[in-house]
Amino acid sequence: ETGVTQSPTHLIKTRGQQVTLRCSSQSGHNTVSWYQQALGQGPQFIFQYYREEENGRGNFPPRFSGLQFPNYSSELNVNALELDDSALYLCASSLEGTRAYEQYFGPGTRLTVT
Amino acid sequence: QKEVEQDPGPLSVPEGAIVSLNCTYSNSAFQYFMWYRQYSRKGPELLMYTYSSGNKEDGRFTAQVDKSSKYISLFIRDSQPSDSATYLCAMSAPGNQFYFGTGTSLTVIP
């Protein structure tokens, strides 16, 4: 069974640029959630995708967008990067239904915006 | 008021001690309660999850939920240096997003 993987591991971008982060779900999982974790903070929910549709969104502006593909892998896109977007971006996969609460996280992508 | 409050620590204990980690919350609709362990530069790892009130035990770990007090705890018995990590509580209402605490940093000294 393959765990959740994310790419790239680290990324440095300039304010105003755009970035795409990628996530491959754990085998068999059809739900992906994305989180932003600032230094010294807990993860903050960005949004969730279930079977290629957005299935819930946290308090993040529209410049944070996502996609889920038929193989359940996912992308997080952030436009017009701001300095405060510097954080660890985590994706987590799960099954639907009662097992939706068993989320398995990837190692994260550390984004630095300068 | 934050949805979930967690004392960030840091907490330092000798090997073999019993560790108690706690979170409080404000949303009475929360029914699912999770504990994650996060090592430095890694993603969170699910330790335990509990539905509604009560206790759940898994090896050296015990999770407790007191919904009347809006208080959850994680106990670690016979703590080991390998338990040194940040512990995050998380909770959710059915069909809703997860809310995480800020995490408690734990160091177990050999």
What would you say this structure looks like, in words?
- The complex is a heterodimer of chains A (114) and B (110).
- Chain A is built from no helices and 11 strands.
- By secondary structure, chain A is mainly β.
- In chain A, a hairpin with a 2-residue loop joins β5 (44-50) and β6 (53-57).
- Chain A starts with a strand and ends with a strand.
- By secondary structure, chain B is mostly beta strands.
- In chain B, 0% of the residues lie in helices and 56% in strands.
- Chain B is built from no helices and 11 strands.
- Chain B has strands at 4-6, 11-14, 19-25, 32-38, 45-51, 54-58, 61-66, 71-76, 85-92, 98-100, 104-109.
- In chain B, a hairpin with a 5-residue loop joins β9 (85-92) and β10.
- Chain B starts with a strand and ends with a strand.
- The model of chain B has no long low-confidence stretch (mean pLDDT 93).
- The chains are: A mainly beta (114), B mainly beta (110).
- The A-B interface holds A 4, 33, 35, 40-45, 48, 56, 58, 90, 92, 101-108 and B 4, 6, 8, 32, 34, 36, 41-46, 49, 51, 88, 90, 92, 96-103.
